[in-house]
Amino acid sequence: MHTVMIRVVVLFYVLLSGLCALTHAAEQTITRTVEEFTLGMPTEQALAVVLAALQHHHMALVDQTQPAAQELMERVEHHYRAAGRPPWIVPTTSDILFTLNAVLFDDPVLKDPVVNVALAAQIATSPALRSPTAQSIGLVFYQAHMLGIFVTPLATYDVIKPAFLAKYGSSQASVYHKNYGFDFVQGDQWIDTNTIVTLTVDNGLFYADRALYALLKEEAQGMLKGVP
């Protein structure tokens, strides 16, 4: 009888611990704004943030051969409507889909090369930016809204991970996904109702909007049905 009671107590403790972990995961709110860029914001609004940051020297372009803020503004004023896409947006290839998939859920639907080539036309990225807190910031757009934010922080992994654990608790998932060739993305992932953030062991951060990711996956699934 005593042994049975011990087992009941242990089982209750395990179930309670699991419930507490789930409750913490459900209640946590993951940051959606990085350097004034907020997941889900319209592309035009993101452009305004970029231009203001460049003009006031809060940020700079990583690649100095990219046009300066004034030139970006002139291009927007003269060519935006005719171009159909903001001229500061960088064309993408199917590689971006493989990378997004590697840092998110490793979904088979985003591994098909034919689908990814077609889907890449729906994805746009910004030139890489740097700020006082980040070596690099890259913005990813889908359906004219911000799907994701790639960040390489100046702070080291040994600083970032404990800060995330303190803020968000234990990660909901461990990531070990194939990217290109023999390259793998490894790290931890935190998820709430609206947001996903992945911290890789090589100190990369990727924030993603879950609703936009769901739309992207849905479009990919529709394309996959038409692939012979």
What is the H-and-E element order?
Answer: HEEHEHHHEEEEHEEEEH
Number of DSSP strand runs = 11
| Helix count, DSSP H or I runs of 4 or more residues | 7
Summed over residues and divided by their number, the pLDDT gives a mean of 75
> Could you list the spans in which at least 5 consecutive residues all have pLDDT below 50?
2-26, 76-85
Number of domains: 1
Q: Please report the distance between the alpha carbons of the first and last residues.
A: 63 Å
Helix content: 40-55%
Radius of gyration: 21 Å
Form type: globular
Describe this structure as you would to a colleague:
The chain has one domain (33-225). Helix 2 runs antiparallel to helix 3 (69-83). The radius of gyration is 21 Å and the shape is globular. The termini are far apart. Strands 3, 4, 5, 6, 7, 8, 9, 10 and 11 form a nine-stranded antiparallel β-sheet that branches. A two-stranded antiparallel ribbon has the order 1-2. The longest helix is centred in the N-terminal third of the chain and has 26 residues, at 2-27. It is of the alpha+beta class and 228 residues long. The chain has helices at residues 2-27, 43-55, 69-83, 95-103, 113-120, 157-168, 210-225, and strands at residues 33-34, 37-38, 60-61, 123-125, 129-131, 134-142, 145-153, 173-178, 184-191, 195-200, 205-209.
Layout of helices and strands, plus pairs?
Blueprint: H1 2-27, E1 33-34, E2 37-38, H2 43-55, E3 60-61, H3 69-83, H4 95-103, H5 113-120, E4 123-125, E5 129-131, E6 134-142, E7 145-153, H6 157-168, E8 173-178, E9 184-191, E10 195-200, E11 205-209, H7 210-225
Antiparallel strand pairs: 1-2, 3-5, 4-6, 5-6, 6-7, 7-11, 8-9, 9-10, 10-11
